Here is the input.
Amino acid sequence: MDFTAIDQKIRALESCIETTISVRHDEKLYVGVDLGTAYIVVVVLNSEKEPVACAMEFAQVIKDGLVVDYMGATQIVRKLVNQLQDRLGRKLTHAAIAVPPGTNAKDCLTHSYVVEGTGLEVTGTLDEPTAANAVLGLENGVIVDIGGGTTGLSIIENGKVVYVADEATGGTHLSLVLAGNQRISFIEAEELKKQTERHDDILPIVRPVVQKMASIVKKHIAGYDISAIHLVGGTCCLKDMELVMEKEIGKPVYKPANPFLVTPLGIALNCHA
Here is the structure.
């Protein structure tokens, strides 16, 4: 796997959070909407599938990968889409979305309704680890997407998904443990997690939760010939958590420089305008 090329793609997307790349008025655009437990992210790609704009907002309208505040989710997505349309000087018309692995048809429709409530037509729905693989390009191995609410995984063999799973342990659980340990609010714990200079202090506190995530992965890959595990998702930004998981699972564990934006980018890459 070419991590240098992957990190370059993610850096290009990072730059589009603050800087908008101009597009032609008639150019085909590809949009991905990531309805995360902690953040909602909207990514726009140009006709060459290169990032041109990105917007995100912290939100607590999704729980364990499921929409619990339909109106709140729709309002946030609409706000982000309007921001991006203003920045690009273009109307956005189509989008792809992703859901945790194993999400039932009814809950997939709810995700679609949130996005369609903003005026976008949903042209593709896929599971989150599979979306991430549009960026990673993994032929064999495991992609583990750890977001705010869940730990989801896809086992890839010869470029095909052969198994998916999802369990409700994620970044929210890290924050709850951190909040209790530090005697601070949940929101303060969320902000503390973002302070990379504090990660060496944070990891020992939340290690049991990371070990739980590792046990989820280890259980689901049992019986498969797995050579390596690849982490994506905002929770995986925690420094050295891959080392804890590697020790628990007994397999090499890798992650890109910024795992947070891998899945949103992969969702946009799967948009069919």
Remarks:
- DSSP finds nine helices and twelve strands in the chain.
- The chain has two domains: 3-132+261-269, 137-257.
- The CA atoms of residues 42 and 81 lie 7 Å apart.
